[in-house]
Amino acid sequence: MDWRSMPSLNALRAFSALAETGSYTKAGEELNVTHAAVMQQIKALEAFFGAQLATRSGRGVALTEDGKVLARDLEAGFRQIAQGVKALSNHQQARPLHVTMSPVFAVKWLMPRLADFQTNHPEVTLLLNPTGMIVDLERDGMDVAIRYSRTEDLPKDADVLIVLDLVVVGTPELVTSQRISGPADLRHLPWLMELGTNEVPDWFARHGVTLDRPLMISQMPGNLIMDAVKRSDGITYTARQWVQEEISAGELVELFPEDNVGAFFIHNRPGEKRKSVKTFSNWLRSRA
């Protein structure tokens, strides 16, 4: 198609709106512009064709014969465009919503609430990607990420979902196997750490502990850690909210608690958000 031989799309839209409404004022309202802007576009279109397309008729506008022919063809063309736009929009809305989060967040927070979302929003299909790795939303085709951060490192204007108290936990048998009076006393115990993180070495660094030998760390998906902790395979650094029941029941012992130092926040892919993204994000906030 020779695009350079075509008149301005804005002028064609203005004329089609004028033909549909029969009024410069109403056409301007449809296009969210002034009636003077519509008149200017019509004059430009008439100059392009070298023919009059519309005339004043009382308080309204009447189309000339040339104008009627153009209006008919434009109405058919814009209707076809509208159908194509609607079809693509419906396809995008029907596409599964891709969500990434850490495995432990998926198991401890999201999954117990997920039936509520599915009941209230059956039109949205979720595709969950639990991983300890930081996923690039645009490159990996993700719509929403639920990410963890220390509160002091939260991005500016972060959409915070929940704030966490963090603790070291282990079974009474493992924790009482040696005298513990400070963070340095945990250097020689086995640790369990989520894949893709560096939280255990970072924990020692924040507490000013100098390591005299490499730490004993086993890395695994976050959803497997608590079963291993309960078997006394090691201790771990986690959110108190995830293990409060076990602590209260005496199954686990908490050490060196830190209040309100961790947070999960919602991060959406840049750009225009699909309706399903807004629906899911709003639901997350309502259940926090």
Automatic annotation (TrEMBL):
One GO MF term attached to the UniProt entry: sequence-specific DNA binding
| Keywords of this entry | DNA-binding, Transcription, Transcription regulation
Keyword tRNA processing belongs to the record: no
Q: Does the keyword DNA-binding apply?
A: yes
Q: Which residues form the HTH lysR-type domain?
A: 7-64
Example of a GO biological process term: DNA-templated transcription
List the InterPro entries. Answer: LysR-type_TF_proteobact-type (IPR058163), LysR_HTH_N (IPR000847), LysR_subst-bd (IPR005119), WH-like_DNA-bd_sf (IPR036388), WH_DNA-bd_sf (IPR036390)
Q: What family does this chain come from, according to its entry?
A: Belongs to the LysR transcriptional regulatory family.
Q: What is this protein called?
A: LysR family transcriptional regulator
